[in-house]
Every structure is written in C-alpha cells, then in structure tokens.
Amino acid sequence: MIFAGGGIKWGKGREALTALAETLEVPVVASTGHADVMVVLDNEAWGAEKAYQQEFYGGRLLGAEITSPRYDKFAELCGGKGIWVDGPGGMDPALEAALASNETTIIQGKTDPGALMTLRKDLFKAPKLPR
C-alpha cells in the first residue's frame, strides 16, 4: 500500500501505471496477499512547499497550489479499479473495497487544503557561524 499526496504524477504515478498495465505489485509494496492499493490524499497543493511558504514567507504562495487530475479515473483507464472519496468517513469503506477486490486500485480522497503544517522549523534559521 502506498500513501501519497496529490503531486504523485511526478513520482509514484509512474509506478502505479506500471502496476496497472502489467498487473504487478508496485515496487515499494511488500507482498500482502491482497491487491495493491495506492491512496492519494489530495489537498490540491504541493503540501510541504505550501506549508513552508505560509509559515516562513508570510503566506505568500508561489506555485504551491495545484489542480490534481482524477487518479481514480486514471486507474480505470489503465485497467485497474478507481475509487473516489469525497469527504470524511469514506476512506474506511474504500480501503475495505480495494483490499477485497484483488485488483490494483487507486483511491483518491479529497482532504482539507488548509490542514497543513511544517515538519521542521529549523530549516530557515540562519546557521551559526564559527567566530
């Protein structure tokens, strides 16, 4: 199982395409005896970049907000299963359906674009130089 943000088209999307086209396990997934599942948590942003811009640059955003394609439809076009989750409460049933399907599945769930946080607050501090 892979969990990724909405920007996966530049990374894990190619692995998903291979898994869908070849009915193979996605390379970073250990064999579970179940279908391969990719969960895309889509907040319509390059999340880390947006969070850092908001925190360290006074909320000025430059290239951090994106419009994600429908990855669930992408899965279907490639011969897999696609599940769309729009809102809270839908992820558990979607995961259960994906795991029970024995198909390579992409679940796309919309998440709150405002629910961001930076992971490291020390990245933009001036380094301490030796005297």
Question: Would you write up a description of this structure?
Answer:
- The chain is of the alpha/beta class.
- The protein has helices at 12-22, 47-56, 71-77, 91-101; strands at residues 2-5, 37-42, 81-86, 105-110.
- It is built from four helices and four strands.
- Strands 1-2-4-3 form a four-stranded parallel β-sheet, sandwiched between helices.
- Helix 1 links the parallel strand 1 (2-5) and strand 2 (37-42).
- The longest helix is centred in the N-terminal third of the chain and has 11 residues, at 12-22.
Instruction: List the total number of helices.
Output: 4
What is the H/E string?
EHEHHEHE
Number of strands: 4
First CA to last CA: what distance?
50 Å
In round numbers, the mean pLDDT is 75
Shape verdict: elongated
Cα Rg: 18 Å
Going across the major beta sheet, what is the strand order?
1-2-4-3
Classify the beta-strand content into a percent band. 15-25%
Low-confidence stretches: 24-32
Major beta sheet summary: 4 strands, parallel
Instruction: Briefly note the structural class of the backbone.
Output: alpha/beta
Helix content: 25-40%
